[in-house]
Design goal:
Blueprint: H1 11-21, E1 26-30, E2 33-36, H2 37-53, E3 61-65, H3 70-82, E4 85-88, H4 95-105, E5 109-112, H5 117-121, E6 129-131, E7 150-156, E8 164-169, H6 170-184, E9 192-194, H7 201-212, E10 217-219, H8 225-234, E11 237-240, H9 244-257, E12 264-267, H10 276-286, E13 290-291, E14 295-296, E15 300-303, E16 308-309, E17 327-331, E18 343-349, E19 356-357, H11 361-367, E20 368-369, E21 372-381, E22 386-391, E23 396-398, E24 401-403, H12 405-413, E25 418-428, E26 432-441, H13 448-456, E27 467-470, H14 486-493
Parallel strand pairs: 1-10, 3-4, 3-5, 4-7, 5-6, 9-10, 11-12, 26-27
Antiparallel strand pairs: 1-2, 7-8, 8-19, 13-16, 14-15, 17-18, 18-21, 20-21, 21-22, 23-24, 25-26
Length: 494
Amino acid sequence: MIGAGATGATVYSLFAMRARQRPAAPALTEGDLTLDYATLLARVEHVAADLAYRGVVRGDRVAVLSENRIDYAIVQLASAKLGAIVACQNWRLTTAELRHCVALVEPRLLLASPRYRAAAAALEAGCPVADLSMLGRDGQSPSAAHPEDPFLIIYTSGTTGLPKAAAISQRAEIARMCALRMDLGIGPEDGYISWAPMFHMGGSEHLLAALMSGARGFVIDGFDADAILDVVAAHRIGWLMLVPATIEPLLERLQARNVRPAGIKALGCMADLVPSATMAAITAALGAPYLNSFGATETGMPPFSGGLIPVGHIPATLDKQLSSLVEVRLVGPDGRDVPQGEAGEAWVRGPTVFSGYWNAERANAESFSDGWFRMGDLLRKTEHGYAFVGRSKYLIKSGGENIYPAEIERVLLADPRVADAVVVRRTDPRWGEIPVAVVARAEAGLDAEAVEQLCRSALAGYKRPREVLFVDMASLPRSASGKIIREEVERMIG
């Protein structure tokens, strides 16, 4: 036997190593509060002891319903030590949607910030509800986690109309940290601004990556252009995450304040959804290239986020570059690799890939094949990289949020006034894409206001159709099997 037992690094152990190495270095900043690494580690230990006292053990799920705050990251690190799984809840969802998400993971404990304590109580989760901001006690807790243990659960919209719970292991989180830093040249001196909701990768995953690598994290409660620019002006940033809808508002404040960045390695994401002129303007204003990203909750920033668009440049194509630490195949319907130049579904494997969907045997059977994860995205290999062709699982990406039409259609089709309905995407200069509902009426009195009210009572705000169009049933284009053809509906509505 050559060696054994020396490969067990976890999210917590890497963070703790950085804290012991540079205890006085700033770790997390939220407003006027800054914790150095030694203080942050001490708080993590106290929260881990409290969670253990409440009965949380390795493998248990801890659901969290909270806005962005330092306490959220502390709970995640404490859970990483215990081997518990943090199920990050989307506070934008309705009570019914949240109830489904919490029930799906059967948590040992539901933690809520003061802002969302009443919302958490209304879920009737069947487990204790505690105040996220009041955790902490003296005592010891075990370092029980293994690298392959699930660590974060991030919810993704489901093609069946209900969210799925993607379980991301400690191993995957460590690999994702490495992949982005390898591709962008990010070091411990480059901080990260966590303004995106912490129920998303952009809020949690990259903040944890900064802490595992000894960098500084800045926590902001949602998109606040001035707060972001305050940090950018004073501190070096590795990757400044900006989703399409935030770029123009940031540009306006940037120009009004004439801010000079301290240094940014890369900015932005989802270049396909950003007007070229806007992309060139933000890169010129901040002096950093644009990240031509293509990833997923299930894979992290890989598989196609290895390319940067130069400052001020308007690219002729948006072909993607392969990320580090990933293997990719483009596969046809027959399960075989397609020839170069033909479109195929992206199949991915590597250490950044998630472990599977929690409590979803059928979804896992459909999503994995022979050790590969099937992304559901169609790409074509070109001489310049990988060109995105379309989505085999139809998805609307609006302002950084993923929306599957099935979620909206499920609500519409449940109403007897609706004979049939389909939701399609439409390009939008601000949001990238927006959902448009195309409805065939069963009752002539049904109008757009009634449809809006129907969606308002059942769906989070960002999922509601931005426009409702009424058509005759006979005008809905259908396949030979009777299914509505979305692409033709898109062309039909312009």
